[in-house]
Amino acid sequence: MQKLLSLFLFLVIGAGTVLAQLPPLIDRELFFDDPEILAGNISPDGKYISFIKPFRGVRNIWVTERAAPFERARPLTADTTRPIPTYFWTHDSKYILYVQDKGGDENYRIYAVDPSATGDPVPPSKDLTPMEKVRAAIISVPRKTPNEIIIGLNDRRPELYDVYRLNLTTGERTLLRKNDENVAGWGTDLDGNLRLGVRVTSTGGTEILRVETDALVQIYEVTAEESCSPVRFTPDGKKFFVHTNKGNVDKTQLELFDLATGKTTVIDKDPLNEVDFSGALFSDVTNELLATIYVGDRVRVYPKQKKFGEDWAKMKNALPDGEISIAGLTDDESIWVVSVSRDVDPGSRYLYDRKTGKAELMYHSRPNLANEHLAPMKPVRYKARDGMTIPAYLTLPKGIPAKNLPTIIVPHGGPWARDGWGYSATVQFLANRGYAVLQPNFRGSTGYGKKFLNAGNKQWGTGSMQHDITDGVNYVVKEGIADPKRVAIYGGSYGGYATLAGLAFTPDLYAAGVSFVGPSNIITLLKSIPPYWAPIKKMFAIRVGDMENPDDVKMLEQQSPLNSAKNIKAPLLVVQGANDPRVKKAESDQIVVALRDLGRQVDYLVAPDEGHGFVGRENRLAFYAAMEKFFATHLGGRYQESMTPEVAKKLTALTVDVGTVKMPEPPKPAAATGAMPKFDGSMVKPHTATYSMNMKMMGQDISTTTNRTVSQASWNGRSVWRVIEEGSGPMGTSSDTLDLDGETLLPLRRSARQGMATIRLDFKNDAVEGKMVAGPQQMPINIKLNNPALTDGAGTDLPLATLPLTEGYETTVHTLDIMAGKTRPMMLKVVGMEKVTVQAGSFDAYKVQVASDDGEWSTTFWISKDDRRTVRVESKLPVHMGGGTAVGELVK
């Protein structure tokens, strides 16, 4: 009897093993090739259907008349090198607008194309922002002026967007406002009038500013641990919606701000109190709030108008199950373009007629992808080591028991973002290959309230953000899902960093890792952020680490995987776009070199025509082929051997011989190590001058006048140039006397007074000593000098005027920062000659730019070619001084 029972169990178990098998291996191109059709929409007048589809192998915009079949559609664009990422219609249906960069450099241009025009093979697109190395941003598309949009351009200052009105027909740009006050974002009312600015404060908080003719006035402020952002104005322009978690509120909610009273009223918050407010849907016809949206484990939509709620319910009944969103609509809002997707369906689009209640299929984005073979994604929760609950998503390979599986952890990028439920090509691809996939929303992820977000501050790598990922591994191992010897980690951007950190700081946890555009050294990352991120730079100091704080710098060094490369044991695949403006190629080069020199296994792919992510078809397919084989080698999953000759050729081209990679040189210019040039006191001539100065900071506009006298004198038996400046303005009168060495023009002593405050400085070879007095308060000054330093004002522009100011000339100068108690290295560059007109007249002048490596301090001088006098100066004030500007001009 026992033998029969054993035989019965063997047969049952054996049959189960035979029956339990993975679905067929799905061709990787079905996951990662361009979708057959995507981004379908309808023109506001209802006449056209538009979409993106490959044309000559690259994603381009197509259009067809609404009544015509898709087969009769024609291309509107014919780009052969860079896929078009997205587009939208103007309100009058006259143009389709799209943005595009070159090779991933993120210097986007705005283009317009007429959908009714024809060409061979396409009508011409109009480049509306034809400028090199300039980034355009669309701020507003007002319904009232369909032929004009509001845009931002960083052509004047790469770190800030000036605001323009752009005529779509003529391409004419009208300047609405120069951005000299560190504004990170702008907002308009429904008519397209510039009304609001958003700025990061000196303490890392956020303030909303009311735009006035000559000033910006703060009307709302939150701390660094809170957030706020304008959403939309009311039709009368007297109020605007804002999402905020100011005060004793954890989850962001939708509020209405009254400009007259400065008070807010709560409009909506999560009924379940689980997550932040995610979005709102407004009618452009009635301007009513139609619905609010919250993203919990899945998306939740709450209708706010009875008729809309009825239509929404009818629409859901007419469509398949899934996450439903309105992607577009006609001008009268009678026809909706509706997107439907779910975890095992990459998505379809439908036209829904509100009058008839019927839905018409537009297209399936990937009709050849067999949904029945895809794996469900489910929300899970696990406890971190300190007791915090971490939300995550788990996808298990279909057809086999969830036991002892090879597993891949996929932390998201950002890191201030989150993963959500739905279709993910990468996740489904990995699950089809036999891997369990865990996507942890570690602390620091957005959407779960400010307590959860702020718990990630300065917690990279060796902190709790990475611990949460590690605890996710422990969770799937403890549940019996993951084979602890076959766990890998893969991510992009911050997820790439988390991959490197996981391998460096928990080297026994992972069997392999893939880092896609991941930074390896946080310090070099922060030093190389794009200039247009400068207005939010303080946020990085608070959430990542303050480069001005020695303790934080030490922490960042410890959190940088590059500095612990010796601990990495697992094989690593590094993938990088050569033109990435966010995570420079040097970040990948340096970790590859470090591991190669340590004798570790490291593979490297570099795409010369990509940036922060791969958008090119063959680049994409080659990368996933390499990743698939890499994981199969080290985890034992399935692998598709075949690939097209084009993809194979591309993979060969992307693959880098790690033996040829060189350690990146320190960023240049290296102002911190440059020696001070020699200045020539013999070039200075006695003279007098009057300057007007205007400062814009913290919503204030301050004007002063300064009279300067430069004369020869003697002090302590040595010849000096004595500069006396006397000023007057709203804060009263001031006086400043500065002695410069007659030969070197280095400062010797200085005495200044402003109202009741005085300062006296004595400059020695290795120190600056003195005292600052303001009423009863006295502050001694004792600053050690490692090298000679200039002082501000005349102590800077007089010496600089004696340098060889030929175009392209570069050097390092060191200036004294009294408040910081140190010298600050600055890089000087002569841009060229300019004709400049000021109150004193017109001058041919050398344009000289002086800036710190971090971009915090920068000044531009215009120095007269004839007499070497400074005729104009523009300074960008640092964040702690309000982030404003100071402009001075020669009066006489």
Quick take:
This protein is α+β, with helices and mostly antiparallel strands and 892 residues long. Helix content is 17%, strand content 39%.
Summarize the structure in words:
The protein is built from 14 helices and 49 strands. By secondary structure, the protein is of the alpha+beta class. The chain starts with a helix and ends with a strand.
Annotation, overall tally of beta strands: 49
- Quote the distance from N terminus to C terminus: 115 Å
Query: Biggest β-sheet: count, sense, barrel?
Result: 14 strands, antiparallel
Low-confidence runs of at least 5 consecutive residues:
1-19
Give the overall silhouette: globular
Notable characteristics:
alpha+beta, 14-stranded antiparallel β-sheet, globular
Strand and helix map with partners:
Blueprint: H1 2-19, H2 28-32, E1 38-42, E2 48-55, E3 58-65, E4 74-75, E5 87-89, E6 96-100, E7 109-113, E8 126-127, E9 136-140, E10 148-153, E11 162-167, E12 173-177, E13 185-188, E14 194-200, E15 206-211, E16 216-222, E17 228-233, E18 239-244, E19 253-258, E20 264-268, E21 277-282, E22 289-295, E23 299-303, H3 306-318, E24 323-329, E25 335-342, E26 345-353, E27 358-364, E28 377-383, E29 389-395, E30 405-409, H4 425-432, E31 436-440, H5 450-454, H6 464-478, E32 482-492, H7 494-505, E33 512-516, H8 522-527, H9 537-543, H10 550-559, E34 572-577, H11 585-597, E35 602-607, H12 617-635, H13 645-654, E36 687-697, E37 700-715, E38 718-729, E39 732-741, E40 747-754, E41 757-763, E42 767-774, E43 777-784, H14 794-800, E44 810-817, E45 822-838, E46 841-851, E47 858-864, E48 870-876, E49 885-890
Parallel strand pairs: 30-31, 30-32, 32-33, 33-34, 34-35
Antiparallel strand pairs: 1-2, 2-3, 3-4, 5-6, 6-7, 7-8, 9-10, 10-11, 11-12, 13-14, 14-15, 15-16, 17-18, 18-19, 19-20, 21-22, 22-23, 24-25, 25-26, 26-27, 28-29, 29-31, 36-37, 36-49, 37-38, 38-39, 39-40, 40-41, 41-42, 42-43, 44-45, 45-46, 46-47, 47-48, 48-49
